[in-house]
From TrEMBL:
Organism: Cupriavidus numazuensis
Gene3D superfamilies: Cytochrome c-like domain
Pfam families: Cytochrome_CBB3
Ranges for domain Cytochrome c: 129-220
Lineage, uppermost ranks: Bacteria, Pseudomonadati, Pseudomonadota, Betaproteobacteria, Burkholderiales
Protein name as annotated: Cytochrome c domain-containing protein
Length: 394
């Protein structure tokens, strides 16, 4: 899925660049040099560092890393020069020479177009409610071109000057949320300035725009799982309130507490529920988000207490809401959904991994002889998800 080099230095460089740009944005905002755009500080420049290019062009990334290194050394030399008068001339000359000789990357490669919302973060928290709201917005405003299943083959698609992209390709999902948001609000144009994708800024509220982007992520996962047996990009366990017994509902993160999660869509037959398992927390999905009365002793820990959860998970699993019963999903300790078990399937195996974007573990010795589920969980733990979106590691 991701197939990208996992060099630690590249990760560090990308994180550093992202943090530096965010810090600059905060500073500009605090100084009153930039205002707000759609409720968050507006990126005031037309360009930003192209993390996505650095990711695939290691030569460029190396050049930049060297140049930044030289810059740091130059700063030290300047400080020394200030403090050490006797050698000031030499130190400053060396600093200037280093700056000149540094392998500065070409700005046209290093920078890419930015929008005021490029660095915005989605306020939805990728919740089942946002996905449900997004589904309505999508059906009403987007499906005619992008298609019910998100593959870009809606009834209007063939009449457009440019074909809508398929959501199943990782290309789209790797864009920064803020850039996608801008493209929906402001529309898109081709090289001649002709509109290719309409602008929805006047028709859809900001909250609904963020919601429809969440829905598109769920849709991409479901359609990808059906078409290719895997998700185009990693997907987080969507947020939902969780109710355990008669206690007040908790947020998913509070309840999960860094544990793995098994999600079980309850198909109405109490006997089909798996027993409790210490290897993960079990979350029961029911159609209306309430605890079924006819289960004498609930065999799953807790229930997703939202009537929207069933539909959201059906979309992610790539099945209609009538077919979700009996489906299981596994999320790793970081909260990424990793595996999907079809209804009626007995036992787990590595073939159930739908999110394969982990960094392959160096060795898989020792997995032989374990039961399928244990092997799968160990593989999930060993191959942690490294998701790069908008060129930056999440
Ligand atoms: C009239 C047809 C049409 C409608 C309606 C439409 N789109 Fe698009 N959309 C397109 C086309 C065509 C493109 C590709 C544009 C391009 O690459 O220049 C596109 C591209 C996109 C992209 C990719 C942006 C990127 O960064 O490349 C997103 C996201 C998107 N649309 C979301 C939506 C959403 C959300 C809606 C509904 C609110 C919607 N679209 C409605 C035609 C449409």
């Amino acid at each position: 899925m991701n197939g990208l080099p996992a060099q630690a230095w590249l990760n560090t460089l990308l994180v550093l660049l992202q943090d530096a740009q965010l810090a600059l944005l905060q500073l500009w905002h605090a100084l009153g040099l930039t205002g707000d755009s759609h409720g968050q500080p507006a990126w005031p420049w037309a360009r930003r560092i192209a993390g996505e290019t650095l990711l695939i062009d290691l030569g460029l990334a190396r050049q930049l890393a060297w140049s930044l290194g030289v810059l740091a050394v130059t700063l030290v030399l300047v400080v020394l020069a200030v403090a050490w008068r006797r050698h000031r001339g030499v130190l400053l000359a060396v600093a200037a020479l280093a700056l000149i000789l540094a392998p500065w990357p070409s700005p046209s490669l290093l920078l890419s177009a930015a929008a005021p919302t490029s660095f915005h973060t989605s306020p939805t928290g990728f919740s089942v409610n946002a996905i449900a709201r997004g589904a309505e917005v999508y059906a009403h405003h987007c499906a005619a071109c992008h298609g019910e299943d998100g593959r870009g083959e809606g009834p209007l698609a063939a009449s457009l000057s440019r074909w809508p992209p398929t959501l199943v390709s990782p290309l789209l999902a790797r864009r920064a949320d803020g850039d996608l948001f801008w493209h929906v609000v402001d529309g898109m144009r081709d090289a001649r300035g002709q509109a290719t994708m309409p602008a929805f800024g006047g028709a859809i509220s900001d909250a609904d725009t963020w919601a429809v982007l969440d829905y598109m992520k769920a849709l991409a996962a479901g359609t990808g799982a059906v078409a290719n047996g895997s998700w185009p990009t990693p997907l987080l366990l969507p947020d939902t309130p969780v109710r355990c017994g008669d206690d007040a509902p908790l947020t998913l993160a509070q309840w999960r507490g860094g544990q793995r999660v098994r999600v079980v869509a309850f198909d109405g037959d109490p006997q089909s529920l798996p027993g409790l398992d210490p290897r993960f927390q079990t979350l029961l999905l029911t159609r209306d988000g309430t605890v079924p009365r006819d289960i004498p002793q609930l065999r799953a820990d807790c229930v997703a207490a939202s009537s929207q959860a069933w539909g959201a998970f059906a979309r992610i699993a790539g099945v209609s809401i009538d077919k979700l019963g009996g489906t299981e999903l596994l999320a790793d300790r970081d909260g990424w959904l990793r595996a999907r078990g079809a209804p009626g399937e007995r036992g787990w195996s590595e073939a159930d991994m739908v999110c394969k974007s982990g960094t392959p573990a160096r060795e898989s010795r020792g997995l032989a002889g374990l039961d399928g589920l244990t092997a799968l969980l160990l593989k999930m733990d060993a191959e942690r998800v490294r998701f790069v979106k908008g060129g930056f590691v999440h």
